[in-house]
Specification:
about 15% strand, about 55% helix, 5-stranded mixed beta sheet, single chain, alpha+beta, 5 strands, 60s Ribosomal Protein L30, Chain: A, about 220 residues
């Protein structure tokens, strides 16, 4: 192989290496862009999660403050064990026994029941103004006498709905905050074998959730 042939093959080799280097550089640049996009996405996700944690911590603090307020204004009812206030995984739960809200086998609020709900509404319209609220009706396992086909399902929903209408129609709270459910006798708080237990099972639970209604809905 003479000098010209060696020079020719050397040039080909140099161009081939240059092509590989260029391809490698392009691959590295593409990988770098992908890594940068991934890092940016992870940073945004971390920022979002930290914000959610801060909001959740703030909401739990608001619920704790509201719990103390309800315990103060309903101290007499709590002492009689007509009302119980707890902060659990669902949120702030105020449990009101049925006899503190209704006459026996009725779904219309008594004046005393409205007074109790008025005090609770004063807290719902304060620092908890944008929190969602779930109203749950519960019964014992006994059928309603003279109900004309109305079951404990309808009865539990009816009592929760009566509380809802008081909050909406009388206290004028925002309807988009509320949800209603009736569970009949199927989520008992106590045993139904004794009257004391059945009395605790007949109740309405007012659950303030940690989640808040959006600003657009809350306006």
């Amino acid at each position: 192989m003479d000098h010209r042939e060696r020079f020719f093959f050397l040039c080909v080799a140099v161009f081939a290496m240059a092509g590989c280097t260029s391809a490698d550089d392009q691959t590295l640049r593409q990988l770098s862009r992908q890594q940068s996009a991934t890092i940016e996405s992870l940073d945004n996700e971390i920022l979002r999660l930290n914000q959610e944690l801060e909001e959740t911590a703030g909401s739990r603090k608001d619920l704790q403050t509201a719990k103390s307020e309800i315990e103060k204004i309903l101290a007499a009812q709590i002492a009689r064990e007509d009302v119980q206030v707890v902060l659990d995984s669902r949120g702030l739960v105020t449990t009101v026994l049925d006899h503190a809200l209704f006459d026996p086998d009725e779904a219309q609020l008594t004046p005393a029941g409205e007074e109790t709900l008025e005090k609770i509404a004063s807290v719902l319209s304060g620092d908890l103004l944008k929190n969602r609220v779930m109203l749950e009706g519960h019964t014992d396992d006994q059928p309603i006498e003279g109900a004309n086909g109305i079951t404990n399902w309808e009865y539990s929903i009816g009592r929760a709905a009566a509380v809802l209408h008081y909050f909406l129609d009388v206290q004028e709270l925002a309807p988009e905050r509320f949800g209603v459910a009736g569970y009949a006798e199927y989520r008992p708080a106590d045993s139904n074998t004794k009257e004391e237990g059945r009395d605790r099972n007949r109740r309405v639970e007012i659950i303030v959730l940690p989640e808040k209604v959006s600003d657009a809905q809350g306006k």
